[in-house]
Design brief:
Oligomer: heterodimer
CATH topology of chain B: Non-ribosomal Peptide Synthetase Peptidyl Carrier Protein, Chain A
CATH architecture of chain B: Orthogonal Bundle
CATH class of chain B: Mainly Alpha
Number of domains of chain A: 1
Strand content of chain B: under 5%
Number of strands of chain A: 8
Number of helices of chain A: 8
CATH superfamily of chain B: ACP-like
Radius of gyration of chain A: 16 Å
Shape of chain B: globular
CATH topology of chain A: Peroxisomal Thiolase, Chain A, domain 1
Order of helices and strands of chain A: EEEHHHEHHHEHEEEH
Helix content of chain B: 40-55%
CATH superfamily of chain A: Thiolase/Chalcone synthase
Number of domains of chain B: 1
Order of helices and strands of chain B: HHHH
CATH architecture of chain A: 3-Layer(aba) Sandwich
Helix content of chain A: 25-40%
Distance between the termini of chain B: 16 Å
Largest sheet of chain B: none
Chain lengths: 207, 85
Amino acid sequence: MSRSHYITRYVHIDGQSIYVDGGLLYRGDHMGTDFLNEAYKGIGLDYPKFYKMDPLSRLAILATEALLTGRKLTQEYSPEDIAIIASCAHSSLDTDLRYQQSVATAPSPSLFVYTLPNVMIGEVCIRQGIKGENTCFVSESFDPPFQADYVNGLLGEGRAEVCISGRADYLRGEMNAFFMLVEKNPASLGEHNSQTTKQLYDRQWKN
Amino acid sequence: MEELMQTLKGQIVEQLNLQHIKPEDIGDDQSLFVEGLGLDSIDALELIVLLQQKYGIKLANPSEGPTVFKTVRSIAEYITAHKAA
């Protein structure tokens, strides 16, 4: 059983730009959902269901799409061996508020189905063909020790061979996403642990 | 009927967030679900809401859904019949 796991790629989205491994992949001209929609076109994504998703799911889709540029994980790993572990601060509050508004006239079914934060993970799993372990934690701030331990536990216990790990948050046009690809491949950006996770997460504020 | 179908196409695109489709791209007799426009079960619920909100029509029998929502023309015919009733 391998004890060390490695970060092979990471992505930041700050609401105006998308960075892969610290390098600019896409910079937009708009904010909020307009940014998400223009980034969809900007990175050449062709997935019409994207427009039906809530902003949090759209953010997670964009981040994981950028993270996996040039790779198709299901061609490299069994779908059951690909895990995704995410966290967020505001859960699905942005959609919850819009659903609450729709209740005053006619409750919107398409808003209601996005009133849980783990739906963003489900959308990524559908898009990427992932069938492994998936969990979404809600925490006010990112907790690298907790998340790194959780992901290393999954990989170390053989419950996954590769893991997409990170954070996505969206509320009233403000957004932030950070995702890493964690594998057993040592040709990497660094060992996956609390320290490197925190270092890479903090880099987004310096872009 | 023609005017109603054109209005419906715009309302469907707006209500269902079909931003990749222009209303004029939807055919009058094009299947809306599965192999046609590719709508799903949540979209069907949104179409029920659309009928209630825009036309004040409640789908009395849910089993009618697949027939009523088959095409833009079938929706328009249902609206016309139930508005007149």
